[in-house]
Amino acid sequence: MSESERLGIVRDFVAREILGREGILDSLADAPLALYERFAETGLMNWWVPKEHGGLGLGLEESVRIVSELAYGDAGVAFTLFLPVLTTSMIGWYGSEELKERFLGPLVARRGFCATLGSEHEAGSELARISTTVRRDGDTLVLDGTKAFSTSTDFARFLVVIARSADDPARYTAVTVPRDAPGLRVDKRWDVIGMRASATYQVSFSDCRVPGDNALNGNGLRLLEIGLNASRILIAASALGVARRIRDVCMEYGKTKSLKGAPLVKDGVFAGRLGQFEMQIDVMANQCLAAARAYDATAARPDAARVLLRQGAQKSALTAKMFCGQTAWQIASTASEMFGGIGYTHDMVIGKLLRDVRHASIIEGGDDVLRDLVYQRFVVPTAKRT
Ligand SMILES: Cc1cc2nc3c(=O)[nH]c(=O)nc-3n(C[C@H](O)[C@H](O)[C@H](O)COP(=O)(O)OP(=O)(O)OC[C@H]3O[C@@H](n4cnc5c(N)ncnc54)[C@H](O)[C@@H]3O)c2cc1C
């Protein structure tokens, strides 16, 4: 099947299953697992997992296009469907062969979800201060602590948990934990303001035991940073998808609303705003695709795992996420004014799109955090400046 056929399938899925059902997806009802099952029926679930583990092995460049289409329909659905890329890429690069076989193959075969648990209340973005601990007890690893936010954990097959060594507080480990491991408790689901089709939980571990070889190889914080490269680019792609949708709903509205005896789309101010949106959307798309190509080029190297350990965060992944998050937010803000008072009601989808797109500048590093990271890594060392 070609890329354009796959994109056609995704567009059909969005048109058939999502558009027009925004109210249900925005209701914070139970996570729409039946909807995800219907996505799985397209054969595209976990589309990036390498072929050797039974996946399609699609690259990030194509993933940008897929995610933009999914987010055009619903950013929460898109987030739920692409976020496992964070977990699987950490396992794919830094898990033992046995671990990959145990977790990645069945994930693809059963068309399931997985989750990553890093964030904690007290530590915030200073992840080096996390207090979830891991200790070795004979053949097992034992986890204790609470993770503030974890998307999809309740219905995931397994998780990767970032924990601090109980014996050596300067050591961090990424541990693979089956969802049904005893001692793992889902405390609550958060009532989020946007992306309400996704489900994010607070999760606790109390004497939670897993086999000793469930740890990934390497510093857990560094592995998380590497895993975030792909998902940050896809958060940017999600902002792109929402921005494209906003442009289109503005156009639809402008055709039905009349001003001075003509449709609003004939008004120069309205048209100029749409022209501005198109310029912004075009640059967002180019930035997402450039970041994805850079990611794919590294991922294709036989020594990718080693190169990524050295590199850590990819500059263009950070800048794509920041740029697209900020630009989509500007577009959403401008667009919400363009509907007048009706745009401030739940009768129009623009309010949902505005709430949904807010996540792009917050999740996986708020902009203050990413600005600081870009400054430290890519401004201070002069050789890394563009
Ligand atoms: C819907 C949702 C889903 C999520 N899913 C997951 C998930 O699956 N797994 C997971 O691990 N986490 C998840 N998260 C957590 C998310 O990634 C974090 O909330 C996000 O990165 C922001 O971090 P924080 O909440 O720790 O806030 P902080 O980053 O601590 O921010 C709090 C304040 O401190 C400021 N601040 C922090 N650091 C700096 C700095 N260096 N310079 C200047 N100011 C700074 C911020 O600007 C802000 O004002 C999710 C969150 C949400 C809302």
Automatic annotation (TrEMBL):
Record-linked InterPro entries: Acyl-CoA_DH_CS, Acyl-CoA_Oxase/DH_mid-dom, Acyl-CoA_Oxase/DH_mid-dom_sf, AcylCo_DH-like_C, AcylCo_DH/oxidase_C, AcylCoA_DH/ox_N, AcylCoA_DH/ox_N_sf, AcylCoA_DH/oxidase_NM_dom_sf
Ranges where the Acyl-CoA dehydrogenase/oxidase N-terminal domain occurs: 10-109
Domain Acyl-CoA dehydrogenase/oxidase C-terminal: 218-377
Cofactor field: FAD
GO terms assigned for molecular function: acyl-CoA dehydrogenase activity; flavin adenine dinucleotide binding
Location of the Acyl-CoA oxidase/dehydrogenase middle domain: 117-208
Keywords: FAD, Flavoprotein, Oxidoreductase
Protein known as: Acyl-CoA dehydrogenase
Species, as recorded: Streptomyces tsukubensis (strain DSM 42081 / NBRC 108919 / NRRL 18488 / 9993)
